[in-house]
Design a protein that fits this description.
The complex is a heterodimer of chains A (602) and B (326). Chain A is of the alpha+beta class and 602 residues long. Chain A has 15 helices and 18 strands. Chain A has 2 domains: 233 residues, Beta-Lactamase (2-Layer Sandwich); 223 residues, 2-Layer Sandwich (Heat Shock Protein 90). The mean pLDDT of chain B is 82. Classes of the chains: A alpha+beta (602), B alpha/beta (326).
């Protein structure tokens, strides 16, 4: 389980890894805030529920306690009246001698609010005495009444009846009153003989009603009273129950112990509080519908939900604000860094937000500036270095070649070959004139070809006609521009690597032509040739093989052309072993004089 | 990103507004329950004493549903004209519902149908001739008549001369009771004297009843109206002091005023058939409120019983006859 959660979290984290900082801040803050809110809200809500329920239970209990107290004192009052009638009146008088009507009247008058009547019956159901004095209805036989039989059957007890209509006496105003009867067996002294009888005290039902009526046990809660068997004595909707319009769970309630219970009755959950009334065995039942309690919860929960939503709403906005305050400068910085990465020049590094980010921005900005200057410096330096290197290389031809040539000339003069010497010296002079070219790097193809011709002349003499050569230059090419001294190294290469080891039938062909307005100069030899792979390396890497040449490699020529005219131009080597090599110079076809004019105009 | 942010904030805002509305509606709804309904009740006669028990039920229901009840009796017994006027007056007085005990099955049909277009009208005890679905709260009056007749037969009236008071037969409840009664009686060998009390005033009616009993040799008198039952019982009681013979005249009727009950107890009246009037009143008001709120309330049938001297103090009958007075 733990592992599973761990995996889950890791998965989420992995997924979120590429999220922006604002997202991470706002989402995690919000999640934490919402969780906190829910937890606090839930805890408070649960606490509220718990305390409300126990509070209501306690409240009900104390309410019923109060009712019980009232009822108890009421019933005790009744019993006192009954006791007083019995012990102080009936027992003391011989009924055959004197009447007890007066005493009963007195008792009745003092408790008129509580009582309907006090009467004493003989065991045959005849009225011995009654107050208020009344005429027994002809149709009524008290012996058939429940209170009478109960009193007779259980002599030692006082009996409380369930509410019933008092129907003993004739009432000229046709009023029928509901009473609760308190009956007991009494001993009547009649002519010194003791006979048994029944003392009946009819309590006004409204007395009980008053006690139970206005008890507050919740909004729609109420209190009712049942006897030990569950017969209803008082109920706020008694008549409705009698008329079968509503039902009450009274039979079950009578079986409950004292205290709080919950039950479901007719689909309604209710809190029931029971309190047993002393002596009578009656039970006070307090009913509070759970919906009363839960309606409070409902309101509370709606309120809580509202507060929670509101708080979450505000929190989310706050989080969004805060996170954007934090993240926006970072994002701006990040954006400018990204631009920098993609090679945009002159990036304005944003400096905003909090101190730390401002600092970062400043640092990056100064770093970038420094980098730019460094880079510029490097470019300049590199360029200068290369140029000086090239120049140095160009210089390098001269001593070596000069030495060799002069050596040949000396050798010729020693052999008195003056013609050859003259040719050689002339060629050398021309060679150097073009070589110098007033220090210019760009010359016409004509001059370049002339230079090559002189060079070839010298070399041919030096190598004693080991090879033949020819130069074919298209008329159109002659006025085009060329870089100085680019063909000569190729010829040198061809001679050293191609011709040196050949018997004497070496051939070198220099061919200049225009194709698609570009200038091409081919140097073709029929020397040893080489493998294409080797040919390829000549242009890219410095060959590891020690060169006997003057040191100007093909690579150098290639780079020079590219440096002047761009990547599209340069050398191409086509070679086959034992077949020969063709090195092709490719340059743009630019008219030398027009270019010169343009430069001058500028 | 921005769009999403906007979406989130809009959703959150809606949630907040929604919860606020919820809160508001909750507090508003809880306050709404306190509406007071004005309900008018128009009786069939001028004597409201016969309606005491029903009034108990009405009061009970009124206190439950927070209704303001105006109880209107007629100045003249069973007057169609007056009932019509009262209906109009009560509608004008902005009654939310009218509970009426119509006096005439046919003549009251139109005024009640008209009134029903404006306010809910609930009929109690009797009904009217109408195609419309009417809310009628009453016991099965036919069955009530049958039970009364059966009681009479049980008491030994199989070959007796029975006087039947045929007052107010235009009122459907009484007509049905009469029909029910006659459906049993036609199987017996009783002979019948039909009789209608014509006097409008109580004193003249009383004298008429007295004379009728005095002059006619009948074994039993039957009436289906509580008021007339009281009159006849009173007449019989007064006559029985003078003549023993007249004391043997059996009286049967319907209704349960306290006077009737005391006559019953004194054995002046032999038996009375009564419906559970408390329930009629209670359900009448409940149904009225239900109709105001356009909720359907199941009309439970009202029970009816025949009460005689012997069974009147049985627990169930006691509860029926003497509602606990608050």
């Amino acid at each position: 389980m733990c592992n599973l959660i761990k995996l889950r979290i890791e998965k989420i984290i992995r997924k979120r890894k590429n999220e922006s900082i604002q997202h991470i801040i706002s989402i995690s803050f919000t999640v934490i805030a919402v969780m906190g809110m829910l937890m606090v809200g839930g805890a408070l809500y649960l606490r509220f529920i718990n305390s409300t329920e126990s509070m209501i239970s306690e409240n009900n209990k104390s309410m019923l306690e109060q009712v019980n107290l009232n009822l108890d004192s009421y019933l005790r009052n009744m019993m006192k009246i009954s006791d007083a009638t019995y012990y102080n009146v009936i027992k003391k008088k011989d009924l055959s001698i004197e009447s007890i009507n007066k005493e009963l009247d007195l008792l009745y008058e003092t408790n008129k609010d509580l009582l309907i009547s006090i009467c004493v019956f003989s065991e045959h159901g005849e009225v011995v005495s009654a107050s208020p004095v009344g005429q027994l209805k002809s149709s009524v036989d008290p012996r058939k009444s429940e209170w009478f039989s109960k009193a007779i059957n259980k002599k030692e007890n006082l009996h409380f009846s369930t509410p019933h209509v008092q129907n003993l006496f004739v009432d000229p105003s046709y009023r029928y009153r509901w009473v609760v009867s308190l009956s007991r067996a009494v001993e009547l002294t009649n002519n010194k003989k003791i006979t048994s009888g029944v003392l009946l005290v009819d309590m006004n039902f409204s007395g009980i009603e008053q006690i139970c009526k206005n008890v507050n046990v919740g909004k729609s809660g109420y209190v009712y009273l049942v006897d030990g068997d569950g017969e209803i004595i008082y109920h706020p909707m008694q008549q409705l129950i009698y008329s079968n319009l509503i039902e009450e769970n009274n039979k079950v309630a009578a079986t409950y112990e004292d205290g709080n219970h919950t039950e479901t009755f007719q689909g309604e959950k209710r809190l029931i509080t029971i309190k047993t009334v002393g002596y009578t065995g009656w039970k006070i039942v307090g009913i509070t519908p759970m919906s009363d309690i839960t309606s409070d919860y409902h309101q509370m929960s709606i309120f809580a939900v509202f507060i929670m939503f509101f708080a979450i709403f505000i929190l989310v906005f706050l989080n969004m604000f805060v996170s954007s305050r934090i993240a926006n400068p970072i994002r701006a910085l990040e954006k400018s860094v990204k631009k920098l990465e993609s090679g945009v020049k002159d990036v304005d590094i944003s400096i905003s937000g909090s101190y730390e980010i401002q600092h970062l921005g400043k640092a990056i900005r100064s770093m970038v500036n420094q980098m730019h200057t460094l880079m510029d410096n490097i470019v300049i330096e590199q360029e200068a270095k290369r140029k000086s290197e090239l120049n140095a290389l160009q210089e390098q031809i001269n001593p070596h070649f000069l030495y060799n040539t002069l050596d040949s000339i000396i050798w010729m003069i020693e052999n008195e070959n003056y013609d050859g010497a003259i040719i050689m010296v002339t060629a050398l002079a021309r060679l150097f004139r073009i070589s110098l070219s007033k220090g210019k790097n760009i010359i016409t193809v004509r001059d370049e070809i002339e230079h090559v011709r002189n060079y070839l002349t010298i070399q041919n003499i030096r190598y004693k006609n080991k090879f033949t050569y020819s130069i074919e230059a298209d008329e159109k090419t002659l006025n085009l521009t060329s870089i100085k001294l680019i063909i000569q190294p190729l010829i040198e290469n061809a001679i050293y690597h191609g011709m040196e080891f050949m018997g004497g039938d070496g051939e070198i062909l220099v061919k200049a032509y225009v194709k698609e307005s570009d200038l091409y100069i081919d140097v073709i030899d029929n020397g040893l040739g080489m493998l294409p792979e080797v040919a390829h390396t000549l242009l890219t890497n410095e060959s590891k093989i020690e060169r006997k040449s003057s040191g100007i490699g093909l690579k150098n020529v290639h780079e020079r052309i590219q440096l002047y005219f761009g990547e599209n131009y340069g050398l191409k080597i086509y070679s086959e072993p034992d077949e020969g090599t063709t090195i092709r110079i490719h340059m743009p076809g630019i008219d030398f004089y027009e270019a010169k004019k343009e430069v001058e105009e500028k | 990103m921005k769009k999403r942010k906007k979406q989130i904030s809009v959703i959150l805002f809606l949630l907040v507004v929604l919860s606020f509305l919820l809160l508001l509606s909750d507090t508003l709804l809880s306050g709404k329950d306190k509406k007071i309904y004005n309900i008018s009740i128009i009786t069939r006669g001028r004597n409201s004493e016969s309606l005491t028990i029903m009034k108990e039920g009405i009061d009970q229901a009124a206190s439950e549903v927070n209704a303001n009840i105006s109880f209107i009796t007629l100045s003249e017994e069973n007057s169609v004209e007056e009932q019509k006027e009262l209906i109009d007056r009560e509608i004008k007085n902005k009654a939310d519902a009218i509970i009426i005990s119509p006096v005439d099955y046919e003549k009251m049909a139109e005024p009640i149908e008209n009134a029903m277009k404006k306010v809910p009208v609930i009929l109690i005890e009797s009904t009217v001739k109408s195609e419309q679905v009417l809310s009628n709260i009453s016991c099965d009056n036919y069955k009530l008549g049958v039970s009364l007749a059966e009681e009479m037969v049980q008491m030994g009236n199989t070959r007796s001369n029975i006087a039947i008071v045929k007052n107010n037969l235009e009122c459907s409840s009484i007509k049905e009771r009469y029909d029910g009664f006659m459906s049993v009686m036609k199987n017996t060998e009783n002979t019948y004297t039909f009789w209608k009390i014509s006097g409008q005033k109580q004193v003249t009616s009383y004298n008429e009843a007295k004379n009728f009993i005095k002059e006619n040799d009948v074994d039993a008198v039957v009436t289906f109206d509580a008021g007339i039952l009281e009159l006849i019982a009173q007449a019989k009681k007064d006559l029985s002091i003078v003549s023993k013979e007249k004391a043997a005249v059996e009286i049967y009727g319907t209704g349960s005023t306290s006077k009737i009950i005391s006559f019953l107890e004194d054995k002046v009246i032999n038996a009375t058939a009564m419906q559970n009037e408390f329930n009629v009143g209670y359900l009448g008001v409940k149904t009225a409120v239900g109709m105001i709120n356009r909720k359907h309330i199941d009309n439970g049938t009202i029970s009816s019983t025949v009460i005689n001297t012997q069974n009147m103090y049985y627990q169930d009958n006691q509860r029926l006859l003497f509602p606990l007075i608050r």
